[in-house]
Amino acid sequence: MNMREQIEAAAARYPDQRSAIMPALLIAQKEHGHLPGPVLEEVSDILGVERVWVYELATFYTLFHTEPVGLFHLQLCDNLSCMLRRSEDLLRHLETVLGIEKGGTTPDGLFTLSTVECLGACEKAPVMQVGDDYHGDLDIARIDALLDRLRAGQATGAELAAAGPPGE
Description:
Elements: H1 3-11, H2 21-32, H3 37-47, H4 51-60, E1 72-77, H5 80-84, H6 87-98, E2 111-116, E3 128-130, E4 133-135, H7 140-152, H8 154-162
Parallel strand pairs: 1-2
Antiparallel strand pairs: 1-3, 3-4
Helix pairs in contact: 1-2, 2-3, 3-4
């Protein structure tokens, strides 16, 4: 099923097409890796909704990416619970070992580093999301071990990325 068909099928579950914007954006991002302007416009056209509505959601929620991100998107929570458990120290460590600042992507395209307001996992603070996976109770040793595991798995991930987005 192509992206249009997937979005139309998802939209059929909603009485108002505007309510289908978020599921449609998730489908489009899975297909394209991120959501540049032309993709946002295509989603708007498929749903028959105002483009501004699609742009609003795509730029508001941190789960949507309007710019390309690395193969591994590291999203470190910087809300109060994580901050109290030293997430700022972890951010500085990540910036140092990756050689990038928050919001940047490593030159090899492997890692993008971001902070997010809340991941809703305060009991595991400090916590970081990598793709769909949460990693909690982090310290520098656990961060370094996680980075090593991600780098070790890069061949498989890089081969998948080189093959293009799913559905091609």
